[in-house]
Write a structure and sequence with these properties.
Blueprint lengths: L17 H26 L3 H31 L15
Helix pairs in contact: 1-2
């Protein structure tokens, strides 16, 4: 990993924990899985249900991708308490 410049570091109080980021990533993955599982429900069912399932699939997919991307990016860059970008307790 490359060195993080001192001015890029963030005070500890403004950073999530590594556990929180991991849970967010898992939730994002679960939402993508749930979206995939809704495909069968979309294929069979009443027209009103199809609209509901399509909306749910789109929402779950978008939210899941965003959660996975942002959490993964923060985990990789070390943007969590105790990570590479943690500046410790600093008073602004």
């Amino acid at each position: 990993m490359s060195e993080v410049k001192e001015n890029e570091k963030i005070p500890t109080g403004k950073l999530p924990t590594k556990f929180t980021l991991t849970v967010r990533a898992l939730v994002g993955g679960y939402l993508l899985y749930t979206s995939y599982e809704l495909i069968d429900s979309l294929a069979s069912g009443e027209p009103k249900e199809k609209v509901f399932f399509a909306i749910a699939m789109i929402a779950f997919t978008i939210i899941g991708i965003v959660l996975l991307f942002l959490s993964g990016k923060s985990l990789i860059k070390g943007k969590y308490q105790g990570g590479a970008m943690d500046a410790g307790d600093q008073n602004d």
